[in-house]
Amino acid sequence: MEFFKILLYTIACILFGIYLVLRKRYSYWAERGILHDKPELIFGNMKELGRTKSAFKIVQDLYMKYKGKANYIGLYSYIQRALIVLDLELVKNVLIKDYEYFSTRGIYYNEKDDPISAHLFNLDYEKWRIMRIKLTPTFTSGKMKFMFPTVVDVATQLLDVMRDAHELDTSKTGSEFANIIARYAVDVIGSVVFGLSCNSLKDPGAEFRAMGEKGFRCRHIWLVHSFINSYPDLARKLGMKFYFDDVSEFFLRIVRETVTYREKTGTQRKDFLNLLIDLKNSDTADPMTMEQITAQTFVFFTAGFETSSCTLSFCLYELALNQMVQNKLREEIMEVLTRYEGKFTYEAMNEMKYMEKVLNETSRKHSIVPCSLRKAVKDYVIPNTNHVIEKGMNVVIPLDAIHHDPEYFPNPEVFDPERFSSTEVKKRHPMAFLPFGDGPRICIGIRFSKMTIMIGLVMILQNYRILPTIKTEVPIQYDIHKYMKSSRNGIYLKTEKIS
Ligand code: HEM
Predict the structure, then answer these.
(1) Does the CB atom of residue 449 touch ligand 1 within 6 A?
(2) Is pLDDT above 80 for 383?
(3) Nearest residue to 417 (alpha-carbon basis) of 365, 378, 459, 370
(4) Helix (H, G, I), strand (E, B) or coil at 44
(5) With bands split at pLDDT 50, 70 and 90, how would you rate the model's confidence at 195?
(6) Of all atoms in ligand 1, which is nearest to the CA of residue 95?
(7) Nearest C-alpha to atom 26 of ligand 1 is from which residue?
(8) Please, what CATH class does the domain formed by 32-497 belong to?
(9) In a 3-state reduction of DSSP, which class is residue 49?
């Protein structure tokens, strides 16, 4: 009996201790006079996450609530603290001008125990700089031109799948396009990054896609996830991993087998892996290891697959709802291809300027990556204030909220590619449109993703008219459980063959 009393007393003391620590933690913004929403114990400001709201909706609501009242606000993401930047000049300072204070994202990686986590997106300091310098030459426009035919080959298979979907579709509801396009994006990345024929288009259950999707998920519950991000050095000492073992093993095996095969047989292919093998063999002073190659190919897959696929499927959705835009885009495609004597080349693609506007407007309205993240690596005094962003503080740039701010984009829910005419662009602050982030840590895959999406669009629109059906959601519902913007219930559209 006495033992239970002591046990109960100890538990009560521990819980009270935790309560005091959390109370202190949750007074951080108030003590500094920085506007914020009142936090709730354990949840901070994230109570609605996954219940009624997505992460980006929570951030957007805070942005709209405090815009005009403050240039930055405080956030409690469970037990973590973050500063949300509302002012575009401060956005510019964080991403570009004062980059040296915000050079990392503060996302956990563990090179030793979880080698695929040590990829470009997560790396920091010198390790990131060296890797970025090595990888940048693999994304030049010359390299894109080199890979162009490989992507066109995959897009040809996409047309086969669309033809089947078209012929089989006898209902009034149409086909689910988010899935068809995701299979295309998986095959493009599988083929161009890993040199594999993934067959996801022909076999929707392909292991590759399953592993790619699992590669987004942390192996831990949110509390442990929050802990490893808050105390990365301790987590590394404890050998904690981010990714599931089967995901790591799958990618390590695929890359090792393919690299070994290519090196043995001297096979050359027009893809990223070829360029990475060249890097491995040419840089004798600091050659890339098999684990490093795997980590980079892995992030090209995880960072490139869902982003490109969702952008393309949201674009088709908007084209179905905006037939005039679709017609204008098709006219441009036909006009450019006629000038190129019907040959679809890299140069022809780059002449499709209206398509560029349509893609920009899609990326604005459905900002797939809703926030850009940074962590302060040293104390930063916010210009013209006495507020300090302390070393270790997370900083959130709310891309999606900025893209929906009526001050920069009037009637933000209207899809209008003319927002990206050169006159309109000049009128806006350069930080008002950042679908790929900005500064030294801007997305490395911009050219590649645009190429994947544009090739898909040219192939589809040349052959089909895209139409909405009774099952097409207007407005689209986003999945509130995902960090990135994707459709919750699928994108149902139908096709009409163009003769
Ligand atoms: C529509 C498609 C895409 C979108 C919207 C997108 C968006 C972004 C954003 C917002 C960032 C963060 C930038 C920042 O923090 O300032 C990022 C980083 C990154 N993206 Fe993309 N991305 C796309 C496609 C791709 C593709 C196809 C690849 C690779 C093949 C890729 C690889 C990366 C990598 C490696 C980083 C980290 C860069 C670094 O820290 O040095 N992304 N992307």
Answers:
(1) yes
(2) yes
(3) 365
(4) strand
(5) confident
(6) 16
(7) 304
(8) mainly alpha
(9) strand
Q: Over 80: is that where the pLDDT of 395 sits? A: yes
pLDDT of residue 178: 93
Q: Distance between the two ends of the chain, CA-based, in angstroms? A: 86
pLDDT in tens, 367-381: 999 999 999 999 999
Q: Is the dihedral of CA 217, 218, 220, 226 positive or negative?
A: negative
The residues spanned by each domain of the chain are 32-497
Buried b (16+ CB within 10 A) or exposed e, 430-443: ebbbbbbbbbebeb
Element at 102 (helix H, strand E): none
Q: Are 487 and 476 in contact (CB under 8 A)?
A: yes
pLDDT for 223: 74
Beta-carbon contacts of 43 under 8 Å, excluding residues fewer than 6 positions away, are 49, 78
Are 189 and 301 contacting, i.e. CB atoms less than 8 angstroms apart?
A: yes
pLDDT of residue 409: 98
CA 453 to ligand 1 centroid distance, Å? 15
Atom of ligand 1 nearest to the CA of 296: 35
pLDDT at 205: 55
Strand order in the sheet with 80-85: 72-77, 80-85, 394-397, 372-375
